[in-house]
What does this fold into?
Amino acid sequence: MANRLEKEDSPYLQQHKNNPVDWWPWCDEAFEKAEKENKAIFISIGYSSCHWCHVMEEQVFENDECAEILNKNFIAIKVDREERPDIDKHYQEVYQLLNRRAGGWPTSIFCTPQNKPFFAGTYIAPESNEGSVEGMGFKELTSLIATKVEENDPQLYKNADEVEGFINHVEHPKEATVLKEEFHLTFVNQAKSNYQPNYGGFSVKPKFPHASTLKTLQVIDNLYHDKAITAMLTNTLDQMKKGGMYDLIDGGFCRYSVDEKWLVPHFEKMLYDNALLCENYLDGYLAYKDENYLQTAKEIADFWFNFMSEDNLFYSASDADSEGEEGTYFTYTYEEVYALLEQNAYENIGKMCQEMNVTPDGNFEGKNIIRFDEKVPDWFSDVKILLQGLRAKRTYPFIDRKVQTSWSAMMIHSLFQLGMIDNVYLGKAVDALEALLNKMYVNDTLYHSALVDKTPKVEAFLEDYAFLAKALLSGYKATQDDLYLIQAQRMANKALENFYDKGLWNFSVGEFQTKAEVTDNTYTSSVSIMVDVLLTLGMLLEDEKYTHFAFKTMEYNSYDLGRRPIYYPYLLSQALRYIKGDRVIKSNLTNLKENSATLKGIEYPFTLLKASEDQGFMVCGEKSCFANTDDVNKLGQLILDTI
It folds into this structure.
């Protein structure tokens, strides 16, 4: 018999509707019941494509004994972190406070009947294991908590009060410092110390792509031409796309790699990763003229349209598992690949398999992930189609058909960037932006998320306003459609009105007022994106108030930015932008559109476009214009001469 989650829209909550646990969705009734019946509260937070969330469901929430303990002694509440990032953000802060380290998913929070948290974990195994660092298992832990709550254990309630006091305390920076161009040197040194020269990237296994770090290194390399930075960037971009974390068959990146070579991923694919990496590879192409980077950027975009979209709306994620196992859809046996090539009359099959890293023993649990250690050979374009045919006969992993404003806007931004090089993607970007606005901006209210065929309910958070405004400004740059600029200004004004407070930005207001992160963690900080948006609006609209709010935000965070810039890559890039200044290229609409690829390829990273009546190209700064030319190819050097 299904539980209360059956009536929820969230795909993640739907996955738990048949658990024996008597789940509640997040609602007032659940908390009222807990207090009335003096029951502890268990809050479980995850998302639909999370591998370890599935493991905990299978081992704990489908375990009758665990369910019985929960149902008897707790009010159990399920939360989709993608649907309610405000709730998730609040409890990630609780986890970090209690454990002195960053959390993750699944997140397991235990609270008093008055909803004051006192214990936080991630994945908790059903049984205790004395030799394990995790310690107490779910059965023992929940039984112990139930007893202490029933006995009104004073220490438990005292701890909960202390946690609540710490969480509600807002700490402001102790001092501000002058924004300096030299901050980038500290950033580069910190990036170098994290860099892994053998296989690229900025961490040991598990390896995440660190798209924001790559983006800012690219900005710095474009400004200062540092051979060491070029080597870090090109090696990382080359290594990541060899195959494994990057899916050479369908396209698109998986979330992270469990090994140092980017070979074995957790196979879930997230919209935000792919949106950010699409731009990284496009930037790499523009800087280093490597056509393979452009091809990867296009393959990422094509994958999302081919597999992960509906009516120009983007799905948020796909799962790692299918048919009950991780990676089943993505991997191949040696025998099936060999037979496939044989059936299609290929010669030198053994050599081809060797080049694809396909062996009888496999490189992933006896099966094979397709990967090329050297350059991808020309024959692979045809073989890829054959390998796609094998996949077509398999069950595709679960797709979370939730549309999220922030993540969708990230991809739309990248599509507009790509569209300046290739008109096909410009049309796709325009259509996707129109679909997103029609879906998520209703009666002058912006919403955060909704299933592709449902009406949105959860109103927008800071990240939605920030990334949507950025996408709109990218749309303006690519098309010079003034409606995009007007809409971006509207989003920025709303964000300032709702979330800004004297240099500090809130992520959410209302039920949970949470502070927005300035660090770039899972993806780029919405605060840094707002700084980007405000600087752009200030320049294009010639309105200093937007520049002022951007500066106050950077000043508020300047002390940490100067000392630990590696944690704030995108904010650092915007500080460099503020110091060095934007350049606006003005020309007539025909010139801007016909030369969009050349304009996009201009090396100076802080370049904007604005349609005018000029027959040539005018280069302008904040309050004056410096130079003009009729030759679009001279613009790059003209701009550098004015810096």
Q: What stands out?
A: The first helix runs from residue 11 to 15. The longest strand covers residues 40-46.
